[in-house]
Amino acid sequence: MNGKIIYLDNNATTRVAPEVFEAMQPYFCEFYGNPSSIHRFGGSVAAAIENARRQVAELLGAVYRDREGNASEIIFTSCGTEGDNSAINAALAALPERRKIVTTAVEHPAVLHYCDELASGKGYIVEKIGVDSCGRLDMAALKAAVDDNTAIVSAMWGNNETGTIFPVKEIAAIAHAKGAYFHTDAVQAAGKVPVNAAECDADFIAISGHKLHAPKGVGALYIRRGIPFVPLICGGHQEKMRRGGTENVASIVGLGKACEIARTALETEYTQLKTMRDAFEAKLLAAIPRIRINGDPENRLPGTSSVSFECIEGESILMLLDMFGICASSGSACTTGSLEPSHVLRAMGIPYSAAHGTIRFSLSRYNTMEELDFVVEKLPPIIARLREISPYWEESK
Ligand code: PLP
After folding, report:
1. pLDDT in tens, 60-116
2. In sequence order, what are the residues at sequence separation of 6 or more whose Cβ sits closer than 8 angstroms to the Cβ of residue 12?
3. Cα angle value 65/63/223 (rounded, 5°)
4. Which residue, among 188, 184, 129, has the nearest Cα to 158 in the 3D structure?
5. What's the mean per-residue pLDDT of the chain?
6. Cβ-count burial of 176 within 10 angstroms (0-12 exposed, 13-18 middle, 19+ buried)?
7. Average pLDDT of 118-123?
8. Is the CB of 296 under 6 A from ligand 1?
9. C-alpha distances in Å from residue 262, one per residue of 118, 162, 163
10. pLDDT digits over 357-368, tens only?
11. What pairing do the DSSP bridges indicate for beta strands 219-223 and 150-154?
12. Mean local confidence (pLDDT), 126-133
């Protein structure tokens, strides 16, 4: 592609960090042994995996080390989706007499579609707890829904569309009070806000490499020590029999490195992203009439900005932004292609006239304020032009 790209779609996926890419390289042509092999050549690769496991554990505050000194509460997966599915699958297998799953209406499809499958295919009761207009969870409804029949509560840490952060520690307490497991999808939160297994008391935490500058196709799942874990993917003895399949070594090494970078830079990056995002939103609000910022104003992931522009289509805005090399998304990447507003915006009760014109800008450490200022410069004429030809705009005046 020619021309400069302004990449503001980091909740969809991120650029692999150069340091991560560098850390991965020896594991393609140099250290290519199978980590399960008895020979030392394979053993050195197994050691690299254990190092990555420790790096992931350190990001997630998983302090337990087994007799070999390994962070065995972490298993590697192929993606965030696998982590989410695995956690729910394991909880249901561990508490077979319980038939209910409690989740939220704004989860990623990695949780929602799996729960729908379990409801239609296996007869589980699935309750999806609603949110308010800022995307905050209805905690009273959650408390009422979790009962002695509930095997697992699955609630995300930070929302991929609006960035709204859920009170995971309180949710964990509600689940545990009824003897249910608690899983949190921290795919968008890990590396952006502190995610600490010990503090939040989660039983399972899923993360995904490609959201934090590691490659696509690798993820990790924290499984609290002592939980009887039934694997979703059965095969060899890898990952202490918790996830069959020869390990994706280079990507695992990359995920470890990405977690280490994210952990050491967490505070600085949080401030950097939040400062840029807040300035960007303030400038947009000043430059364009009738827009709204979605999500919890107090408790939001620092780099996520979901903006609704009334009376126009998000897809048209995206196409015009694309002409300037600006990459953003409407709703979540997974719902792109559908003209229905996303399930998250619908759950929040955002009026259709605004939900249709919603754009998600998502930042990373590689963005600059100059890039955001460029968007602020190009966006007002785009919105004005689209509103001029929108029949809804005239009607709404
Ligand atoms: N959970 C959330 C909150 C996400 O945003 C995503 C991806 O967009 C996923 C899960 C799925 O992750 P993966 O693409 O690694 O399967």
Report:
1. 999 999 999 999 999 999 999 999 999 999 999 999 999 999 999 999 999 999 999
2. 329, 332, 333, 362
3. 80
4. 188
5. 96
6. middle
7. 97
8. no
9. 35, 21, 18
10. 999 999 999 999
11. unpaired
12. 98
Residue that has been written with the tokens 């490195």 in this structure: 257
Residue 102 pairs in a beta bridge with: 127, 153
The one-letter amino acid at 388: E
Q: How many residues are listed for the chain in this entry?
A: 397
What's the Cα-to-Cα distance from 241 to each of 54, 86, 96, rounded to whole Å? 19, 13, 20
Ligand 1 closest atom vs CA 158: 3
Tokens of 236: 């060899």
For residue 187, report the distance from its CA to the centre of ligand 1, in Å: 6
| Cα–Cα dist 275/270, whole Å | 8
Tell me which H or E stretch contains 24. helix 18-24
Structure tokens at 286: 């000043």
Is a pLDDT exceeding 50 seen at residue 335?
A: no
The finding on whether 80 has its CB within 6 A of some atom of ligand 1 is: yes
pLDDT for residue 333 is more than 60: no
Instruction: Give residue 81 CA to ligand 1 midpoint distance, Å.
Output: 6
Q: Does ligand 1 have an atom closer than 6 angstroms to the CB of 81?
A: yes
Nearest CA to ligand 1 atom 10: 80
Q: Please report, to the nearest 10 degrees, the dihedral formed by the alpha carbons of residues 336, 341, 342, 343 taken in order.
A: -150
Measured CA to CA, the distance from residue 360 to residue 366 in angstroms comes to 17
Kindly tell me the burial class for residue 213, based on how many C-beta atoms sit within 10 Å of its own C-beta (0-12, 13-18, 19 or more): buried
Query: Beta-carbon neighbour count of residue 112 at 10 Å?
Result: 19
CB 135 within 8 A of CB 160: no
DSSP secondary structure letter of residue 203: S
Catalytic residue positions, numbered = 334
The token duo for 373 is: 């200022």
Exposure b/e, 72-84, CB count within 10 A at least 16 = b: bbbbbbbbbbbbb
286 C-alpha to center of ligand 1: Å? 33
Give Rg (Cα) of the chain. Answer: 22
Q: Give SS3 for 355.
A: helix
Measured CA to CA, the distance from residue 382 to residue 157 in angstroms comes to: 34
Q: What is the pLDDT of residues 277-327, one digit of tens each?
A: 999 999 999 999 999 999 999 999 999 999 999 999 999 999 999 999 999
DSSP single-letter state for residue 297: S
